[in-house]
Amino acid sequence: MQPVEIRVDDIKVINRLRKTDEGKVEEISQSIETIGLLHPIHVAKQDDKFILLSGSHRLGAYKLLERTTIPAVVRENDDLINQLVEVSENLCSKKLNAIQEAQNIVLREQILIKLGKKAVVGSNQYQGQGITNKQLATQLGISRRIYSYKKQVANLLPDVQELLGESKFAEQMMYMVKLSKQPEDIQREVARILNSGETTTFNRALIMANLKLRSKEWKREYVLTKEEVDTPKSVMRFDRKADKLNDICMMVSHDENLRKKKCSANFGVSQLNNYTMLPEHSRWFVKYFTKEDELVCDNTCGRGTNILAAAYENRRVIGYDLSKDNLASIENALVNHIGMERDKFTLHHSCGIEMEEYKGNSNMVDLFLNDIPYIMSAEKYTDDPRDLCNVKDLDQFYSRVEVMMTNMKRLVKPSNYDKKIYKPIIMKVGSQRKGKQGLFRMDSEIEMIGRRIGLVLHDEITNELKPTLQYLQQCIANKFTVKCHERNLVFLKYED
Q1: Tens digit of pLDDT for each residue in 312-324?
Q2: How far is residue 171 from each of residues 99, 102, 108, 120, 166, measured CA to CA in Å?
């Protein structure tokens, strides 16, 4: 199509995915003054005006030069473009309820796919081939996680959306997301109850619907929920959820190259797959204490569960490990299965105790999340003498841990109690037995180390473990009590 001259004042700029770079506008304006405009802008016709499709910096340069017209390629009578403009304006208006917003988010993605501008499953989103969900979320001023959360409302049945579309309940995104996860018959019954006015509260409508349609199942779920609610919050339960993150972590853990030797004074010697921490445990800490694009570090990353969980939640990560095989498997998972850009992660094949690469740095990490190895060869990870699992002397072990925590203290960002800013160092520790030497209280020792170097113990969170049948049998045979819990010590470095 041949470009035509159109009035600059007739061009509307809405809903741009990229912010205009004023420096680039200045540079382009100088080029236009010297050699003219090499490439016309692209616009879509809308009534007697035009919608800018591409060329915001060129348009900005013409405005800077106070030019009244600009060469443009005009797309005439494009229904998809007009529809995209309308949907985008709706989303930017901030006047939509949760249902309407979800409908417009989904519709916008569908239009972008038809136009060939949306990254889809199978395309390389991370090399600029298509607009990503993260970009669409940024456009709306929200995180990718919130964007996905809002979009869930579109999973409501069409008739339920229509029934509740104009009600006050449609304003409550949390309720609509909760309803979208219910079975179809429950969705319809809840919508009917709310629309009829039998109750004025969403939660009661959900209870009424379950009592009517799912009486036996619902009562069982109610009992389980009540048990969970009654559990002290300092004791947390984490399960291995069947999701993509769990699959990725299990894939790394079960890599045939990453088998370890378990050497127990009581339980014999065996070869087994490395145990992977529950991803939900790591993910909880990441989401609770950090925001998107903040920096998470694991000094002893092993199978990489902490690293993978942080990357999965769109955090930048630093990982240390003395095993090249570990790091190679983690890198493969980060790049090929999570889709993380390489400039967002750093993996060091070196000692996470000394952290030599950051000797001159301070106040850079938002969260340290560590699951330190068992002591005195309870589990054999590498033959490297720097590996904590190879330390035979207990005092030497704690001395090495103190060096690591001192370096973490230097690198973690300061917290501020008054401003409610918390940048923690989290040490996941459990007690350890060593034959005739008895029980070692690692959690107590590490707590004292933290206090000694000037850290503040902000909180402790206890995980409730689910011991395997084999472990139960081993404990019974040795007349041990079963370890059902492990502590997570949350340390902070406060500003002076």
Answers
A1: 999 999 999 988 8
A2: 8, 12, 20, 30, 9
